[in-house]
Design goal:
With about 375 residues, the protein is mainly β. About 0% of the residues lie in helices and about 45% in strands. The chain contains no helices and 23 strands. The chain has strands spanning about 5-10, 10-20, 25-45, 50-55, 65-70, 75-85, 95-100, 105-110, 115, 130-135, 150-155, 155-160, 165-175, 180-190, 245-250, 265-270, 280-285, 290-295, 305-310, 320-325, 330-335, 340-350, 355-360. The strands form five sheets. The chain has a seven-stranded antiparallel sheet, with no helix packed on it. Strands 7-8-9-10 form a four-stranded antiparallel sheet, with no helix packed on it. It is globular, with a radius of gyration of 20 Å.
């Protein structure tokens, strides 16, 4: 039996904490902690799970902010630092990512900008010494504005999917100076596809120009192709007026119990809602072709964020937490079954009806 702590945030002035008990499959609300106006994304430090970063989303025209917290037992949060000078680097900070270098990357949806903020040695206090990367306004597509939505680190490089530009930007540090990043490449996507979130798991190198199967990751592999996988699949017999759009994507690492790295994507219905809720689509990569293995109805409406319990270790990879950004279904925990090819709902708490972003930890980590 393990007691996991789950932190949940999104479109609120607080982050809530829950306890998930794997013995009786109970999901218990614990407390909530004040963050900032319209806090949208939370992420823990990649190696120190007692450190949490939070972006507070602002209205258009006002700079967003980035804050750091310490996390104690049962998810108790204490504010340490907030960067106001230049803020998140723009407006509408939709995502933040703790980097292996100790820096924190923030993407700003409204202003089409990104900022990588250095931290001090404790990873809690921020430095203002960093540049703001501004992405160009698209000349093609349908959005008419840059809409960067997340940052994904792969070795020394940052990948930023831009919904408005239908591109994935490639950024790198300039001259080894923390906080100073610049665009050095791009990966074009089909016009109108709106890349939102990405994951990279390199087993094979489809359409790669050099360095196949390197002993270490290439510094800047020549990925000059469109990502070939469209991780959205309409459920069978949807209601009339349905309109589907993917949001989150997870690829938990293989384990003895889950040897196949299945791909889990939230399949949002933006139109007429199915009474069974949105689905989580489960894919398998078979010879670089996505094969749909399952569509799991969740009872949730607008799943914008979900997270694998592998963050917490101690068997957490068996679980996925998810919630809708609208509706009243609350927070749900699903257990991976059939080796990961299916999901079973095992716990739910409806006290807080909607959430968007999650972090897992356990009693050994705090």
């Amino acid at each position: 039996m393990v007691n996991f702590t789950i932190l949940a945030g999104g479109y609120a002035t607080y982050v809530a904490s829950y306890s998930f008990n794997t013995e009786d499959n109970s999901l218990t609300y614990l407390n909530q902690y004040t963050t900032g106006a319209d806090s949208q994304w939370i992420i823990s430090h990649p190696t120190n799970k007692t450190i949490l970063y939070v972006t507070s989303k602002s209205t258009p025209g006002e700079l967003g902010v980035l804050s750091s917290f310490t996390v104690g037992p049962e998810g108790a949060m204490t504010l340490v630092d907030t960067i106001y000078s230049g803020g998140s680097g723009g407006t509408g900070p939709s995502y933040c990512a703790g980097l292996s270098t100790g820096q924190v990357a923030v993407t700003n949806y409204y202003s089409g900008t990104a900022r990588v903020v250095p931290t001090e040695r404790d990873y809690l206090h921020f430095s203002d010494d960093s540049t703001i990367v501004t992405f160009p306004v698209p000349t093609t597509g349908t959005q008419g504005m840059s809409e960067p939505h997340m940052t994904y680190q792969y070795y020394d490089e940052l990948f930023i999917p831009d919904k408005g530009n239908d591109k994935i930007w490639r950024l790198s540090e300039v001259g080894g100076n923390p906080g100073y990043f610049a665009i050095h490449g791009e990966i074009l996507q089909p016009i109108g596809s709106g890349p939102r979130h990405i994951r990279i798991r390199v087993v094979h190198y489809p359409r790669v120009d050099e360095h196949p199967n390197p002993p270490r990751g290439p510094r800047f592999p020549k990925w000059n192709f469109s990502f070939p996988f469209e991780c959205i699949h309409h459920p069978p017999d949807p209601p009339a007026g349905s309109a589907f759009a993917a949001a989150e994507i997870l690829i938990p690492e293989p384990t003895a119990d889950y040897p196949i790295p299945y791909i889990y994507t939230s399949n949002r219905n933006l139109g007429v809602q199915d009474t069974r809720g949105d689905t989580i689509a489960i894919f398998e990569n078979v010879d670089n072709n996505l094969v749909l293995r399952n569509q799991v109805y969740t009872g949730l409406d607008q799943i914008r964020g979900m997270m694998s319990g592998e963050q917490a270790g101690y068997g957490g990879e068996a679980y996925i937490v998810a919630a809708g950004s609208t509706g009243t279904a609350g927070v749900k925990v699903f257990k991976r079954t059939e080796g990961g090819a299916n999901l079973e709902e095992v716990a739910v708490n409806t006290l807080i009806p909607t959430s968007m972003t999650f972090v897992w930890s356990n009693q050994h980590q705090v």
